[in-house]
Amino acid sequence: MLQYIFNTSAIWLLSLLVFDLFLRRETYHSYNRFYLLGTFTIGLLLPLWQLQEATVQFTATLGSRHIAQNAALLKETISNSQPAAAALSLSTVLWSIYFAGLAIASILLLKDVLTLSLAYKKGNKFKDGVWTVIETNRQQSPYSAFRFVFISSRKDYTEEQLRIILTHEEQHGHLLHFFDLLFMQLAKIIFWFHPLVYIYTERLATVHEFQADAAVDKTPKEYGQFLIEQAILQSAPALSHSFNRSPIKKRIIMLTRHSSALSKSKLLLTLPLLLASALCFSKNALSDNTRITNGNKVTFHGNTFVVHKHTADTTIVVDPVTGEETTLLKVMDGLFVESMNGKKVYGERDFQGADVYDNTSLKGEALKEYLLSNLKEEIKQLKDGDYYLLMDCLTVDENGKIVYYNYGGISTSFNDVASVESEGAKNVQDAFAKKIDELIMNAPKHKPASIKGRNVPVQVYINIENTFTVKGGKITSL
To answer: Would you say 382 and 397 are in contact if contact means Cβ atoms under 8 Å apart?
Structure first.
């Protein structure tokens, strides 16, 4: 989600910069309208498009032959960790804030719809061709919505002024400007937190006014004077075109402006803009989930990791009764991340006997719950039974962001991913792999681990010894 918002914001920002620098002062109003609507829509859709089919790789077993020993060693790394429930609390808070804003924005739009409905219901109506004119009997600037024009009263205007208003507002209807506004108002509900959406809405509304002004057959001086007179009146609902909403000065200046033939060359800027957006801000342009392995080096999501396979290790066990120490040899096949971009990734073996953690707030069990709760569609493809989510090498950087993991698949056994029997077993595993990669790479940041007050990358243990139970296409227990 964060990557999508970043890519979308980049496209919108680049498009608005091009518009403000090269197109905003030109009189190609139809093109400018198309440009604003087009680049806004591209910003919404292009980050969802992949230039190539992304490949999410996963290891078949993660060396699970001795997974219990692996788990026992890594579990000590976070033995002093905070409660798991706290790991995803930030995500819960952020989503709560988002939906609260969504609700408020929806209520404001409904309020505008209600205002328009009441004005139509209570006003005096008369026809002007295919248009319906409503007298609201309130001191307000004229405004229009769809094929309805709202004015205070006919007696407030001369015949000439009324004709100016109707020509202007009816031009909005001819050009279907209302649907542009409706589209942007819906976008403002979904992206209520995004300032660029509001800038797009303002730029588009101004272009609408330029187009409507151009239809009025009056001199700039006469028309400008009338605009100034209307500017002091009360404005209209956001879901309508108000006669006085856009900057009056800019509209008067635009009436006297004429774009030169040379300025048409600026229209070609759209082509390189689209190309740059496609190359830089498509779904996997900045978020490539393909792993490139070279020996023990793995490049993943723009970072380079050194991953080692540990085949043997020793541990000292103290008899609680006699106090006698015994050295045991553990045979292990697990993978461990040694470094990220040249920086050491810390693990339990680096800190034995030292109190070095303030502890990352990310806990393996909470992450596991987060993943499974967001895999509803994928879970439906599994038969009833108990399953393991095989994963290790979960690495959190010094900023608290998950940057690496090894995913071994969904299995009914520690040792055999192929135990997930299905007519399309490979497709099932691929679906899980892609969704898990998306969820992990877009997971919220957590409190990073630290050593002596300095944040450090750390590998976090995920308990894969615990199964989850599927029944009827749903998880019944974790």
So the answer is: no
Token readout for 61 is 């077993």
d(CA 44, CA 184): 12
CA dihedral sign, ordered 69, 70, 76, 78: negative
Tally Cβ neighbours within 10 Å of residue 16: 19
pLDDT along the chain (478 residues), means of 10: 81 89 87 93 81 45 38 37 44 87 95 93 90 90 89 89 90 93 95 96 94 85 82 79 77 81 70 68 54 84 80 57 61 69 79 51 78 88 87 86 86 62 67 86 80 83 79 85
Q: To 10 degrees, what angle do helices 159-174 and 177-190 make? A: 60
Q: CA-based angle 449:451:452, to the nearest 5? A: 135
**Dist CA 46 CA 39 (whole Å):** 10
Residue 90 and residue 443 in contact, taking contact as beta carbons nearer than 8 Å: no
> Residue 397: left (phi > 0), alpha (psi -120 to 50), or beta?
beta
Length, in residues, of the chain: 478
pLDDT score, position 90: 66
53-92 burial, b at 16+ Cβ within 10 Å, e below that, comes to eeebebbebbbbeebebbbebbbebbeebbebeebbeeee
Work out the angle between the directed axes of helices 248-256 and 195-214 (0-180°, nearest 10).
Answer: 50
The structural domains of the chain, with segments of one domain joined by +, span: 2-53+94-112+174-281, 64-81+291-477
Q: Which amino acid is at 454?
A: R
Can you tell me the distance from the alpha carbon of 390 to that of 407, in angstroms, rounded to the nearest whole number?
6
- In Å, how far from its chain's centre is CA 397? 22
DSSP state of 83: P
Q: Taking a C-beta distance cutoff of 8 angstroms, is the pair 166, 131 a contact?
A: yes
> Is the sign of the CA dihedral 238, 240, 244, 249 positive or negative?
positive
Distance set, CA 149 to CA 84, 172, 333, 366 (Å): 58, 10, 75, 56
- Other C-beta atoms closer than 10 Å to the C-beta of 370 total 18
Q: Do residues 220 and 253 touch, judged by C-beta distance below 8 A?
A: no
3-state SS, residue 403: strand
d(CA 458, CA 345): 5
Q: Encoding tokens for residue 395?
A: 């690495």
DSSP 8-class letter at 64: G
